[in-house]
Amino acid sequence: MYSTVGFKLQWGRCVQSRRFRNLTAAGIALWMAATAFAQANRPGQPQNFDNVQLHMIPVQGNVYMLIGAGGNMTVQIGNDGVMLVDTMFAPLADRIAAEIKKISPGPIRFIINTHVHGDHIGGNAALAKMGAPGSSPTEGGGATIIAHENVVNRMTKPAAGGETPGATPGLPTDEYFTPTKDVYFNSEPVFIIHEPNAHTDGDSIVLFRRSDTISTGDIFTPERYPFIDVERGGSVQGLIAALNHILHLTVPAHLQEGGTRVIPGHGRLCDEADVVEYRDMVTIVKDRVEAMIKKGMTLDQVKAAKPTFDYDTQYGSGDAFTEGVFKSLSNPPKTPTVKYLE
Amino acid sequence: MKKSLLFTVLFSAVMVAQAPQGAQPPVLPGPPPQARPGKTAAPVDFTGYWVSPVMEDWRWRMVTPVKGDFASVPITAEAFKEGQNWDPAKDEAAGLQCKAYGAAAVMRVPGRLHITWQDDNTLKIETDAGTQTRLFHFNSKAPANEPASWQGYSEANWERPVRGEGDPRNDIPPIFSTRTGTRGKSLEVVTTHLRPGYLRKNGVPYSDNARVEEFYDYHKAPNGDEWFTVTTVVHDAKYLNVPFITSTDFKKQRDAAGWNPTPCSTR
Amino acid sequence: MTFRTKLPITTISIFTFAFALTGPVFAQVDLTGEWAPAYHEDGPERLPGPELGDYMGIPINDNARLRADSYDADRISVVTEYQCRPHSADYGMRGLGDLRVTRQIDPTTQQLVAFHTYMPAWGSVRTIWMDGRPHPADYMPHTWQGFSTGVWDGNMLVVTTTHLKANYLRRNGISSSDKRTVTEYWTRHRNYLTVVEYVDDPVMLTEPLVRSQNWTLDPGQETHRMFCEYAPEVPAEVGSVPNHLPGANPFLHEVADWYGLPYEATRGGAKTIYPEYKLSMPQPEQPAPAHCERFCVCSVLLDCNLHGGALGGPPPAR
């Protein structure tokens, strides 16, 4: 009924998926605590999911956007089945599945996580369970979950005792550590591109080439300042590089409007011009903080100088963002920024 | 017989349904109806205190522009030449301090207005800037010997429906179209008999042949503030290449706060 | 009754039923036509462009002022994505504003469905829906022209526009945000069209910005199509965004000095737009020139000379 799907990685090598590891009780608890912590870091997470409204809107080509609570989801549909980018929160999984069923009868075959935060991976286990492996023609058995290896590393960080955690539902099953990974699904190439040390150290953006749509995760959140998760390897340098890369990939249809659609981590459906506004803001604030650091100002002094003042009425309080910029400029990430050929 | 009766009933029902609510019955040729007093006929209320926030032409209105600055005004070569002769001291000495407060320009001078009905057919606009008074006369024409003045003589009417020149009997019965025209809420004013004055305080001239058309439109902003906009069209073949069109916005105030009568000044 | 009698009666009955179904039509104002803009207010700002640092007349807040101060005019060429950036629905009415208005009539009901406007500046096409449809949800895309709906208030068309992209309040760095709502009041008097714009922008303004523009009917006007293709104009680092650090913009005093204006007044803000400001306005730091030196004659684009006036001679006869 559904066509087999082939996959390849860059350079033609076939990479084996990691085997499931055995989990100790401490590992499960640690992962749950980490998820809860990540969720708690996200502003505006609702406690009561009953009041959350889900809205599925067509974007273009095979791609839809699902807005609800937590991070936006991307839904790609077609004869091969369903591909999701991110999964919101676990309590919403059944309702999410119901929304997907309205537009496609196919099984969920792939879930791609843009990064490790709980409002983007919370539904992994429940939604994957409903699906079937991406590479298999069979139904059932659980969808393939793809993420950068740093997402897996963060989700399986050893407990204080140093014991290696084992497998857990919702853990990515197919991680990659190369600059990109691609999948051909529903008649279009899907590029999963690692953006190093941006929002976190495990960020991926997803380019649906024929549908001309990019899912950015929390690299781009047009209605709020970026959250630079320095604790998890985020940096303003990587964030700016990622935004510039997104701008490199987007092509507007007519006079800076339309064309490539951009699904942000949070907020409305966008296009290139919206990303330009955001990139400009991040770059300008970075320039200001950089100049203050050169003058020897401390973090408190930089915050007091309000380098985000002119954007605060648009994006809210800039203190956390300022702190993220300061810290990442003061201690630049060690991973070199990858130069892409395209 | 039954079918013709049915037809008559249907036809009548359609005619009733076609008639727009509140429409006047079609006008048949005959003597015009007697004009209603301006105050009675007013579809909107312009009375009260109004302030003009200066969000356009700021540096030509809030300060006196420098000599020779005619930006935005479609002046003729003659106006250009005349404008170079502007001499505020000379105007002061000659008692011409109010030259920039004439009807063609006074609505652009930053200030407040107090609008009242002087009588049923005269709407009065007082300005605090330059302490000018404009009288808008309804149902009245300028007297033949009306002397020229800074404010001239203003003939006012509430906007009449826009009609074509065709035979009004085409409206009866309104089978194919209705021609009720617009349900206007605008005040139209034409001012003549003006003394030569300045469109701007730095001596951009208008002549005694100038004719000023104005359209006053009221609207309510989304936040409930009341505004009106006056679109002013100055016709002056001597000094203007084309009619000079500006639109000035006034916001209603609850009271006379800020009312500050100041005399005319040349600077 | 014969067939010959029956047929006309039947025909007339069918027609009258059809008319009855359409319902009464309230005649409104015809706004359609080719409209030529009158740049008789703020000509230099709207035509060649505003001076840097000129914030006069705009009730900007402190946040918007800092953003404008940080603006480097190089951005519009260095950042290639800015080169073809159109004027939005509201700012487009201020700029190069040759305007065509057409209307769309439902063929079945003969009711007005929408007005369509076209401005050749950036080929801006806009639809003003007149059929009562609601505005889209917040999460739908924003566009340069936004989403507009209109209702009649007597002879005035009241247009509400949402879902606008960030753009300009004045194209010298004073931005408008994507959170703004624009309400317009369109009136036609004879062959004059006046559009009053009420811009409510909680991000940039302390109170709504109200400006009005005028057009004259010009049936002979032919609007053209505009093309734009970006090109790298200057070498620059990828992702470079020209900007001035706070306090480091060297151009902010120019407009005050060139025109002999108080610097405080050029900084804009609600305080400076009310008549009483004239009483407290400080003296200019530099005296005004004895005679106009910049844009002295400027009411149409070709007539807008940087160094006109006595130096440039009188305007050309039309």
What would your notes on this structure say?
The complex is a heterotrimer of chains A (342), B (267) and C (318). Chain A has a single domain, classed as 4-Layer Sandwich (Metallo-beta-lactamase, Chain A), CATH 3.60.15. Chain A is built from 10 helices and 13 strands. Chain A has helices at 25-41, 93-103, 118-121, 124-129, 149-155, 236-249, 272-294, 299-304, 309-315, 319-330; strands at residues 7-9, 55-60, 63-67, 73-78, 81-85, 108-112, 144-148, 174-176, 180-185, 188-195, 203-208, 213-217, 261-264. Chain B has one domain (47-160, 178-253). Chain B contains 5 helices and 11 strands, in the order ααβαααββββββββββ. Mean pLDDT of chain B is 88; it is low at 17-29. Chain C is an alpha+beta fold and 318 residues long. Among the domains of chain C are: 33-217, no CATH class; 290-318, no CATH class. Chain C contains 9 helices and 11 strands. The termini of chain C are far apart. The interface between B and C is large, with 83 and 82 residues.
Topology readout:
The complex is a heterotrimer of chains A (342), B (267) and C (318).
Chain A: E1 7-9, H1 25-41, E2 55-60, E3 63-67, E4 73-78, E5 81-85, H2 93-103, E6 108-112, H3 118-121, H4 124-129, E7 144-148, H5 149-155, E8 174-176, E9 180-185, E10 188-195, E11 203-208, E12 213-217, H6 236-249, E13 261-264, H7 272-294, H8 299-304, H9 309-315, H10 319-330
Parallel strand pairs in A: 5-6, 6-7, 7-8, 12-13
Antiparallel strand pairs in A: 1-9, 2-3, 3-4, 4-5, 9-10, 10-11, 11-12
Chain B: H1 2-18, H2 38-41, E1 48-51, H3 58-61, H4 77-83, H5 88-93, E2 112-119, E3 122-127, E4 133-138, E5 153-158, E6 187-192, E7 197-198, E8 205-206, E9 211-220, E10 226-235, E11 244-253
Parallel strand pairs in B: 4-5
Antiparallel strand pairs in B: 1-2, 1-11, 2-3, 3-4, 5-6, 6-9, 7-8, 9-10, 10-11
Chain C: H1 3-22, E1 33-38, H2 43-46, H3 62-70, H4 75-78, H5 80-83, H6 89-92, E2 99-105, E3 112-119, E4 124-129, E5 147-153, E6 156-162, E7 167-170, E8 174-176, E9 181-189, E10 192-200, E11 209-217, H7 254-259, H8 263-266, H9 277-280
Parallel strand pairs in C: 4-5
Antiparallel strand pairs in C: 1-2, 1-11, 2-3, 3-4, 5-6, 6-9, 7-8, 9-10, 10-11
